[in-house]
Specification:
The complex is a heterodimer of chains A (736) and B (121).
Chain A: H1 27-43, H2 52-64, H3 68-92, H4 97-119, H5 121-130, H6 136-149, H7 152-170, H8 177-189, H9 192-221, H10 224-245, H11 250-263, H12 267-271, H13 278-284, H14 287-297, H15 303-324, H16 332-352, H17 358-372, H18 378-393, H19 399-415, H20 419-435, H21 442-456, H22 458-489, H23 517-533, E1 547-553, E2 559-565, H24 566-574, E3 580-582, H25 583-590, H26 594-605, E4 613-616, E5 627-630, E6 640-642, H27 653-682, E7 684-686, H28 687-698, H29 706-718, E8 722-724, E9 731-734
Helix pairs in contact in A: 1-2, 1-3, 2-5, 3-4, 3-6, 4-6, 4-8, 7-9, 8-9, 9-11, 10-11, 10-14, 15-17, 16-17, 16-18, 18-19, 18-20, 19-21, 20-22, 20-27, 21-22, 27-28, 27-29
Chain B: E1 28-32, E2 38-42, H1 43-46, H2 50-57, H3 63-67, E3 69-71, H4 77-94, H5 109-119
Parallel strand pairs in B: 1-3
Antiparallel strand pairs in B: 1-2
Classes of the chains: A mainly alpha (736), B alpha+beta (121).
Chain lengths: 736, 121
């Protein structure tokens, strides 16, 4: 123990502690017998007579005396022997008892193993790590795996039993889930690989073929909605199964099997299924089915894109039919209302069933954009819809309702590519509304303008706002005029003038017709008043846009108030002095342009119930040889009779052409301005880049045509804003 | 080793009434030395030793768990006494309270260490 004598502090050395007991050669054999006996007793459930301390001490001493290996090997072989015994009794178990037996033996083994490990703890602690052997507990599990689970008599039977039970449960039978749980937990305890190789993999394969067959059956006999219901139920069942008696890691795997077999493999067929597929669901607003489809398809790759593609092509198809259906085109208001309804319907579907999925919203928007622009009358119709709403449709509606409707219109407006065409029509319609005083709510009008302004910027609406300003100023002017001049005007007709700033209003220069003298007098008075207050201005009369209220007395002394256009008023005033006039006379006296005169005479003479003039010969159309007479016999239930007022109508074909042409004309300076802006900053640019840039700059308002852009570039070259590069003809240079 | 022979528990009347709780960590356990001296300690304290812990918690009714007493034929009375002191000292120490050093007389160091190895303490 100690090397030296008294100076113990130096050379102090500790030797391994040597056991003092003499070892008898049979010691190891004898002590092992004690432990072996104990192990058997433990397996026989007979441990109550054993002393833990004694067994622990025995094992302790064996390890201490370097018999650790003998102890370990002895344990291994004893346990192996016991397990082989157990496997025989498990194998002998009949039918349904097999799993029960296996489970109860497993419980026994587990308990015994724990006890054995406890008494051999000293070996586990010292001998096992030193000689790098497998710890007792793990050894016990490995032996169980090798001799029970992998025993040829048990291995396949166990798997078959488990799969059979699961199959029976899928077919609706009740099975002992607790037992299933114990068995799968045992497989997990033996290691994840045992669970995966010996159970999970075959389980997934069997499930795949099961669902492959089942889905085939379902799809043959079910409609899409029912099929999806069944799939959803199966999916939930599998998840529930996992939560009850399988390892949590299996969930993702088994659900992906179900998803693949039931959804992914059949997704095209499902979506396109006749009479019940996606399109039918959309048509019939089947929110539940759609939501189910969305949630199931979301689980598989490409699932949602399948739905989206089909939805998009359906929307485009129906949209295209809608906008090209000649029946629909007859009523613009109805047409736009249809579009709005369609949009609302699908918005709701996306909101309710598709979880407000952004990609679906985008698909919806792009579909609308696609088909709305298929019909080049869409801008006109949308403006007409607004016109209708602002004239009468919004009467009695609350402010919020108005906002909702206008917001919806703005949404359609956003889809338009030719926003400038809309602007053009909107301006015309607004002008008519303002001049005829037909607008329902000034607030609604202004709100619409504000919306257009936020959408397209100041430039877009400045002229529209100018129109409002003109209306206001005119009102003030008229008040002032009558306040100052009332005494010199006397009892003559009342004049209401709207002074329109040239440029802000969609007016065309139009030669004034010959006004009746009564009117002419007051007009001249107003002119001198106005020019007196405003220096350097010019006033021209837009007789084609005015209206007049006149009182007329008919044959039986019946008095009516006629609400007519200025032109009609001029014509009617002629009949104050004479009873009959030929077409030629009227044309000469009034100087109304021929086409307007025809329309005006037609509305006065040929409309039933409003025929204040009588035409000879009677016919539907006006010809140059006709003669007109004052219709003495005119009667009407109403005191006020409205005759052929200027109502915004769908344009006729030639008018449409004309508007189109004006739009094209208006685009030219815009395109030129864009080209100059671009070239000013870039100095040198090739043709294609210019076209691309111009398109980019202008697409908020319209889609410029490349051919037109090219023409504008040529015109700019002529006017020496640009020149072609001398070396490279494709390049343009900006000339400052 | 001292006291190799099994000392017949000479003065232990098996009259405990501790059967009310034999597996719970509370309650007491009787430790008996080679010479037959009995030390009654809290189970909580005894479980400072891993060996004793396993012994007292192992399933399947070993005699120690049933009877609530453990015999140590290879541990002498003074050593077992020291060990019992250590159990309580260790509990106190691990509870984080201020604890004075545990005193070990040099003469018993070796035996105590052997016992400690045995008891996995």
């Amino acid at each position: 123990m100690s090397g030296g004598g008294p100076p113990r502090k130096r050379n102090f050395k500790i030797e391994l502690f040597k056991h003092r007991v003499e070892l008898d050669p049979k010691y190891s054999e004898r002590t092992w017998k004690v432990l072996e006996h104990a192990i058997h007793e433990i397996y026989n459930h007979n441990a109550s007579g054993l002393s833990f301390e004694e067994l622990y001490r025995t094992a302790y001493n064996m390890v201490l005396h370097k018999y650790g290996e003998k102890l370990y090997d002895g344990l291994e072989s004893t346990m192996t022997w016991r397990l082989k015994e157990l496997s025989k009794s498990i194998e002998a178990a009949q039918g349904g008892l097999f799993l029960e037996e296996l489970n109860s033996k497993w419980m026994d083994h587990n308990k015994a193993l724990q006890m054995i490990r406890d008494i051999l703890m000293y070996m586990d602690r010292t001998y096992v790590p030193q000689s790098r052997r497998i710890p007792v507990h793990e050894l016990g599990l490995n032996l169980w795996r090798d001799h029970i689970i992998h025993s040829p008599m048990i291995h396949s039977r166990l798997l078959d039993t488990l799969l059979d039970l699961i199959h029976r449960e899928r077919m609706g039978e009740m099975i002992n889930r607790g037992l299933m749980r114990s068995i799968t937990k045992m497989l997990m305890d033996l290691g994840a690989t045992v669970y995966q190789d010996d159970f999970e993999k075959p389980f997934l394969e069997v499930s795949a073929s099961f669902y492959s067959v089942e889905s085939q059956e379902f799809i043959e006999c079910c409609d899409c909605g029912n099929y999806l219901k069944k799939s959803e139920r199966r999916l939930n069942e599998e998840m529930e199964r996992v939560s009850h008696y399988l390892d949590a890691g299996t969930e993702a795997k088994i659900t992906s099997v179900v998803e693949k077999e039931m959804i992914a493999n059949h997704r095209h067929r499902l979506v396109h299924m006749e009479n019940s597929g996606l399109v039918n669901m959309l048509v019939d607003d089947k929110y539940d089915d759609l939501a189910r489809m969305y949630n199931l398809f979301r689980r598989v790759s490409d699932g949602l894109s399948t739905i989206r593609d089909v939805m998009t092509s359906y929307l485009r198809e129906t949209g295209k039919q809608l906008v090209t259906d000649p029946e629909r085109l007859k009523d613009p208001v109805e047409f736009v209302q249809c579009l709005l309804n369609e949009k609302d319907k699908h918005d709701k579907i996306i909101n309710v069933a598709f979880g407000n999925d952004k990609t679906f919203q985008n698909a919806l928007n792009s579909s609308f954009e696609y088909f709305i622009n298929l019909n080049n009358r869409s801008p006109e119709f949308i403006s007409l819809y607004v016109d209708d709403k602002l004239r009468k449709g919004l009467k009695g509606a609350t402010e919020e309702d108005v906002e909702v409707i206008l917001d919806k219109v703005m949404m359609l407006f956003r889809y338009l590519q030719e926003k400038d065409v809309f602007e053009k029509y909107y301006k015309q319609h607004l002008a008519k509304r303002l001049l005829s005083g037909k607008t329902v709510s000034d607030d609604a009008e202004r709100s619409m303008i504000v919306k257009l302004k936020t959408e397209c910027g100041y430039q877009f609406t400045s002229k529209l706002e100018g129109m409002f300003t003109d209306m206001k100023t005119s009102q003030d002017t008229m008040l002032d005029f009558y306040a100052k001049k009332s005494e010199e005007l006397g009892d003559g007709p009342t004049l209401d003038v709207h002074i329109l700033t040239t440029g802000s209003w969609p007016t065309q220069p139009c030669p004034p017709c010959n006004l009746p003298t009564e009117i002419l007098t007051i007009c001249d008075k107003f002119r001198s008043y106005y020019l007196g207050t405003h220096n350097g201005r010019r006033l021209t009369w837009q007789t084609n846009m005015g209206t007049a209220d006149i009182k007329a007395t008919f044959g039986k002394g019946q008095k009516h108030e006629l609400n007519v256009s200025t032109y009609q008023m001029c014509v009617l005033m002629l009949f104050n002095s004479t009873d009959g006039l030929t077409y030629k006379d009227i044309e000469q006296d009034t100087a109304i342009p021929a086409s307007d005169l025809r329309r005006c005479l037609q509305s006065l003479a040929c409309v039933k119930g409003k025929n204040v003039l009588r035409k000879e010969p009677m016919s539907k159309d006006i010809s140059e040889d006709d003669t007109f007479y004052f219709n003495d016999k005119f009667t009407s239930k109403l005191v006020k009779v409205k005759i052929g007022t200027v109502v915004a109508q769908k344009e006729s074909e030639p008018e449409k052409q004309e508007t189109r042409q004006r739009v094209e004309e208006d685009r030219k300076p815009q395109i030129e301005a864009a080209i100059v802006r671009i070239m000013k900053s870039r100095r040198v640019l090739d043709h294609n880049s210019i076209v691309a840039e111009v398109t980019k700059q202008l697409q908020a308002r319209f889609m410029p045509n490349p051919v037109v852009i090219k023409k504008r570039i040529e015109s700019l070259i002529e006017r020496e804003f640009l020149e072609r590069d001398k070396a490279d003809r494709k390049l343009y240079r900006y000339l400052a | 080793m001292l006291g190799k022979g099994e000392t017949p528990g000479h003065q232990n009347p098996p009259q405990h009434k501790d059967d009310d709780d034999d597996d719970a960590p509370h309650g007491v356990v009787k430790l008996i030395s080679a010479e037959g001296f009995e030390f009654v300690v809290d189970k909580k304290a005894a479980m400072v030793s891993n060996t004793l812990r396993n012994m007292l918690t192992s399933p399947g009714g070993f005699s120690e768990t049933r009877e609530g007493e453990v015999r140590f034929p290879e541990i002498s009375t003074p050593i077992l006494e020291k060990i019992c002191q250590y159990f309580y000292w260790s509990l106190h120490y691990s509870s984080g309270k201020e604890t004075s050093e545990f005193q070990i007389e040099p003469e018993i160091t070796l035996e105590l260490m052997m016992a400690a190895n045995y008891l996995d303490t």
